[in-house]
Amino acid sequence: MLHLYQPTLGMKAIVVVDNVACGPAIGGTRMAPDVSFEECFRLARAMTLKNAAAGLPHGGAKSVIFGDPLMDPDLKEQWIRAFAQGIRGITDYIPGPDMGTNEAAMAFIKDEGGRSAGLPRELGGIPLDEVGATAFGLLVSADVAKEKIGMEFSGMRVAVQGFGAVGKHAARFFAGKGASIVAAADITGAVFDAGGLDVAALIAHKEADGDMIDFEGGQQIERDSIIGVDCDLLIPAARPDVIRAENQASVKARFIVPGANIGITDEAEHMLYERGVLCIPDFIANAGGVICAATEVAGGRKRDAFAAIDEKVRANTAEMLERADRHGIPPREAAVQMARERVDAAMEYTRFD
Questions:
Q1: Catalytic one among 50, 62, 168, 206?
Q2: What is the pLDDT of residues 294-331, one digit of tens each?
Q3: 146 is catalytic
Q4: Which residue segments constitute the domains of the chain, with CATH numbers given?
Q5: How many CA atoms are closer than 13 Å to the CA of 191, on its beta-carbon side?
Q6: Cβ-proximal residues to 93 (8 Å cutoff; 6+ apart), any chain
Q7: Where are the alpha helices (DSSP H) in 253-301?
Q8: The pLDDT of residue 351
């Protein structure tokens, strides 16, 4: 764990490298004014489990920068470059894009320190947010999970909480399979239409820097009420802990496929399990982004990344569900068991001083 501070700019950041038994750690760089050490640590551990479960030759890490991602672009570049200078010596950490950062930020980090993933296409990268790698993994995981609850994509009612880089691509992918996107939310508000929102219009509105609260293609509802809308599938794709013990009872979805890391508290996830709501663990469902990043680091292309996402996320979701059924345990317990077995096996070959 490393705390960084650049007094001239006022830039503060934290880096947590959780485990490198499987190889150099990959983990996103998150930028938000209200991040914390606890959040960084939990996210780093989630990345260890995610990378191990996906069978990647990488450990887990995470970094957070305490700042407004909407700050002046020139100042943001200075902050990102200062952060990159501060992590030059952490040679077993490969940063990637996360909430509040993007491909341009990764280019600045590489320019300063020489290591990053999720680079712009012009630098030989596979731009994760542009191609929708994480969202594609959600689709693959849901394709496996829907069989367990006896559903098909056609006619499936989907709610997307967090209509950003992951959420908008998830809406596009699921709509392309015949699902109906009945609700969507961002930080400003939420919209609902039982008959299905116009996904293309909604994405165009967001890409034109429009806020959800200004979208006229559906009924405006209170932002946080999207957790309890009448739907079959709920995709939390925003901040951590949006589904908690005190609001989980409002969830009407039959299953949840998280696009966000640690989007559901452990207590809430257990309560949902007891209620019969199928929750695919975050580090199983949303591994598409890091699989894409690892493919880029290894020199692969977009088609290689999507093939790897389909193979790994599909196999891991199926194995996790099979373990859960065989042992009569919640999906998360089965997923953690699976990932820890892989980390422990890798640690048998590694000598830690």
A1: 62
A2: 999 999 999 999 999 999 999 999 999 999 999 999 99
A3: no
A4: 2-120 (3.40.50.10860), 133-285 (3.40.50.720)
A5: 22
A6: 15, 17, 24, 25, 27, 61, 63, 87, 115
A7: 266-274, 282-285, 288-297
A8: 63
